[in-house]
Amino acid sequence: MRLFVVGNFDKPLVKPALDAWLPLIKSKVELVGVTDEREGDFGALQADVVLVLGGDGTLLGTARQLRGRAIPVMGINFGRLGFLASFTPENFPKDLDELVAGRLPVQRRMMADASVVSADISCPMIDHNEVKKHRRFHATALNDAVITAGPPFHMVELELGVNGEDGVRYFGDGVIVATPSGSTAYNVSAGGPIMNPDVEAFCITPICPHSLSFRPVVVSDRSTVVIHASRVNEGTTLFCDGQASTKLQKGDKIVIRRSEHDILLIENPHMREWRELAEKLNWAVTPKYNETR
User: Fold this and answer.
1) Contact 152, 234 (CB under 8 A)
2) Residue 146 and residue 10: Cα distance in Å, rounded?
3) 3-class DSSP assignment, residue 291
4) Exposed e or buried b for every residue in 23-36, given b needs 16+ CB within 10 A?
5) 60, 195, 197, 218 - which has most CB atoms within 10 Å?
6) Is 56 helix (H, G, I), strand (E, B) or coil?
7) CA 226, 228, 230 angle in degrees (round to 5)?
8) Is 198 marked active-site?
9) Which CATH code is given to the segment(s) 2-109+262-281?
């Protein structure tokens, strides 16, 4: 097995842990490289597994840098939540044995493909090949593509359409288009629904809409979501996974569809999704009843 390590070495515990693990790793697999999360494009990487040391943010960046390569990714959580990086440093020696033995489950996670087409370009937004020819920005996202109002923080005006239908206009602070993996991130904070990771869909969640009736919507992963930036601020920005970004101009069209490539995520078999939601997000926590009555 050829193993490649990506680390967030800004986290103080990552390098000492890796230094301690290197003899064990080299005794069980072929170590083909170690790199910082901010370095390199992994599109030509020759490895069987990518080991990510950091948090969910490090894993999100690695997923994009793989450029569609079908290499399983295993995340060791040195961050706060660890929804995607679901393995713990304490259990790494045992989990490495399970990895080498091929006993760890691998799940496909869909990714979003986000493109920006300038206002002066006229092409059918639901034609992916035409969009690819004319886009000025492109990025993939494992969690979400988010449009935020930005400074001077006036409300922006957006038009949202799906599969070529006329857009629905609304005013607010932006919009989130989340994958199932990202439904527990910014999406849930903004009032969007939690989706099971194996659901194939997008959730479109408005950010502080100036309307009492604009609710989050779940659409099929086969949908093409087109957002027209009718009125924006100087700082209005599209973020993909909070990392890759571009400023938006008035009239820009943001086209979001399912990526042609999924990410292969190695799952921790000891983690249970519903239990993790309850423990990490306090989901479905019962009221604090007065037991004396």
Assistant:
1) yes
2) 25
3) coil
4) eebeebbebeebbe
5) 60
6) helix
7) 170
8) no
9) 3.40.50.10330
Of 36, 41, 48, 56, catalytic: 56
Alpha-carbon gap, residue 105 to 46, rounded angstroms: 21
Per-residue burial over 152-171, b if 16 or more Cβ lie within 10 Å, else e, is eeebbbbebbbeeeeeeebb
Q: In what order do the strands lie in the sheet with 253-258?
A: 137-141, 112-117, 253-258, 225-231, 156-162, 168-172
pLDDT along the chain (293 residues), means of 10: 96 96 97 86 90 95 92 94 90 96 96 96 89 95 97 96 90 97 94 93 96 92 97 98 96 97 94 70 72 61
Q: What is the pTM of this model?
A: 0.91
DSSP codes, 104-141: S-EEEE--EEEEEE-TT----TT-HHHHHHH-SEEEEE
238, two tokens: 């599209």
Can you list the alpha helix ranges (DSSP code H) found in 12-153?
Answer: 14-28, 56-65, 92-100, 128-134
Domain with CATH 2.60.200.30 in the chain: 112-258
Domain 112-258 has CATH 1.10.3720.10: no
- Domain(s) labelled CATH 3.40.50.10330 in the chain stretch across 2-109+262-281
